[in-house]
């Protein structure tokens, strides 16, 4: 048997941490002295403690680790495999976001070095007036929290494309996301997911917008707020008011490329000339 001090030294965790693990049911001592309350751990428990350390290094939460390892023993390889695959996906997504941030920093550094403002890129965003054609769209409309929006929209478009495939419908254009006015809750958004199709069936509606300002985003969606800011500025300067919900067309579908830099998205905002 190992004392709590010996066990903590071998596994490179503090006695305080071990007591906390005991408190939350992650790792119990093999034995607790009735006389003085001293904790003792078995040699076999070294494996579980080292597994906990390994999973923590992968950024799994203690609650997740508790489920994986079980309260009293080492978990099966299948449980660990499933958790590792899921966590790897999350970490790769974080890496991509960090890489995009680094690329943006590099771009801003170069802009400053040649004497340009860090925000001068806004002037390079092209804003055009266009007539958007009437379309028949197959749609789903949902209220989503901010956190749900961050998880992406693929599940909603999958449902639409499944219906299109099942009913052998004819796609007439790229997928669309329509951002309706948010509710009174600033963290809840009403969003419509749509695909233009030829046939009029259950779940379709007429999509009319008429005159719109249009801009194109080449690259990551992280930069899309700049497009909306530029459109607001352009409309104010040129005497136009926004009259309906903005919408986005995914010219390059995210699933078609692994590189956000290759995304092409068209952003439209219906307008009317101010009198």
Question: Which descriptors would you attach to this protein?
Answer:
3 domains, Multidrug-efflux Transporter Regulator, Chain: A, Domain 2, elongated, 8 helices, 275 residues, alpha+beta
What does this structure look like?
This protein has three domains: 74 residues, Orthogonal Bundle (Multidrug-efflux Transporter Regulator, Chain: A, Domain 2); 37 residues; 150 residues, Regulatory factor, effector binding domain (Multidrug-efflux Transporter 1 Regulator Bmrr, Chain A). The protein is 39% helix and 24% strand. The protein contains eight helices and twelve strands. A hairpin with a 6-residue loop joins strand 2 and strand 3. The strands form two sheets. Strands 4, 5, 6, 7, 8, 9, 10, 11 and 12 form a nine-stranded antiparallel beta sheet that branches. A three-stranded antiparallel beta sheet has the order 1-3-2. By secondary structure, the protein is α+β, with helices and mostly antiparallel strands.
Gross morphology is elongated
CATH fold-level topology of the largest domain: Multidrug-efflux Transporter 1 Regulator Bmrr, Chain A
Which H/E pattern describes the elements?
EHHEEHHHEEHHEEEEHEEE
CATH homology-level superfamily of the largest domain: Regulatory factor, effector binding domain
Mean pLDDT: 87
Helix-strand makeup class: alpha+beta
Strand content: 15-25%
The CATH top-level class label of the largest domain: Alpha Beta
What is the tally of beta strands? 12
Overall domain count: 3
CATH architecture field of the largest domain: Alpha-Beta Barrel
Count of helical regions:
8
Q: State the helicity in percent bands.
A: 25-40%
Radius of gyration, whole Å? 27 Å
Low-confidence stretches: none
Distance between the termini: 86 Å
Main sheet summary: 9 strands, antiparallel
């Amino acid at each position: 048997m190992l004392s709590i001090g010996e066990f903590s030294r071998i596994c490179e965790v503090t006695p305080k941490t071990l007591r906390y693990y005991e408190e939350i049911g992650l790792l119990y001592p093999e034995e607790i002295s009735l006389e003085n309350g001293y904790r003792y751990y078995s040699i076999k428990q070294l494996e579980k403690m080292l597994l906990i350390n390994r999973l923590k290094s992968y950024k799994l939460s203690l609650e997740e680790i508790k489920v994986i390892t079980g309260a009293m023993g080492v978990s099966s390889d299948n449980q660990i495999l499933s958790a590792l695959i899921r966590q790897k996906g999350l970490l790769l997504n974080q890496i991509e976001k960090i890489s995009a941030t680094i690329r943006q920093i590099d771009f801003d550094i170069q802009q400053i070095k040649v004497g340009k403002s860090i925000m001068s890129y806004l002037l390079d965003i092209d804003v055009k007036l266009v007539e958007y054609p009437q379309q028949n769209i197959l749609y789903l409309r949902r209220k989503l929290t901010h956190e749900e929006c961050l998880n992406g929209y693929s599940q909603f478009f999958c449902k639409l494309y499944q219906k299109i495939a099942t009913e052998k419908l004819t796609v007439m254009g790229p997928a669309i996301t329509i951002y309706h006015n948010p509710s009174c809750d600033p963290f809840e958004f009403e969003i419509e997911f749509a695909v233009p199709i030829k046939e009029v069936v259950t779940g379709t509606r007429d999509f009319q917008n008429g005159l719109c300002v249009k801009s194109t985003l080449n690259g990551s969606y992280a930069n899309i707020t700049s497009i909306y800011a530029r459109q607001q500025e352009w409309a104010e300067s040129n005497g136009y008011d926004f009259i309906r919900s903005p919408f986005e067309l995914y010219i390059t579908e995210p699933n078609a490329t692994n590189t956000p830099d290759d995304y092409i998205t068209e952003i439209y905002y219906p307008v009317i000339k101010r009198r």
